[in-house]
Amino acid sequence: MLQGFKDFLLRGNIVDLAVAVVIGTAFTALVSTFTAAIIEPIINAFGGANVDGLSYQLIEKNDATVIDFAAVINAIITFLITAAVVYFIFVVPSKKLMERLATGQEEEPEGPSEDILLLREIRDALGGSATQRGPAPGVDPTA
């Protein structure tokens, strides 16, 4: 039982998965910082001078009742950027690699070439006709 667990942990797939999670987490933090520092201020600028960005406060002087539309838009942009990068950097190249590998494996081994087939036909024809007709012309059968 412990050997199976050890084999599972030492397989290449689990290491690849761990690396992907770490890189994904770091990349998500990078995209979140980018959108919070650059995109969100641009979005908040559309709210006007008297409003705190693109937000709406339901009850005045109660910060817990603020609906922050900029944060929602920021999260959507973060998701779209992350999904696009993952798709175009990881998914598309891996699909192309898998297609290449799949086409290389699906090829059935070819039969003998036409030269070999022709030589086999000649061999079979000569083997069958020599026994039926006797010796070739000009050959002394007693020799």
Spell out the blueprint of helices and strands:
Elements: H1 2-10, H2 12-45, E1 55-57, E2 66-68, H3 69-106, H4 114-133
Helix pairs in contact: 2-3
Structural features:
single chain; 143 residues; mainly alpha; Non-ribosomal Peptide Synthetase Peptidyl Carrier Protein, Chain A; two-stranded antiparallel ribbon; 2 strands; elongated
Beta-strand residue percentage: under 5%
Oligomerization = single chain
CATH fold assignment of the domain at 2-101:
Non-ribosomal Peptide Synthetase Peptidyl Carrier Protein, Chain A
The CATH homologous superfamily of the domain at 2-101: Large-conductance mechanosensitive channel, MscL, domain 1
Computed structural class: mainly alpha
Text of the CATH class of the domain at 2-101: Mainly Alpha
What's the main sheet like?
Answer: 2 strands, antiparallel
Provide the low-confidence segments as ranges.
none
Distance between the amino and carboxyl termini: 78 Å
Question: H/E element string?
Answer: HHEEHH
- Helix amount, in percent? over 70%
GO molecular function, one term: mechanosensitive monoatomic ion channel activity
Function: Channel that opens in response to stretch forces in the membrane lipid bilayer. May participate in the regulation of osmotic pressure changes within the cell.
InterPro entries: Mechanosensitive_channel_CS, MS_channel, MSC/AndL, MscL_channel
Keywords: Cell membrane, Ion channel, Ion transport, Membrane, Transmembrane, Transmembrane helix, Transport
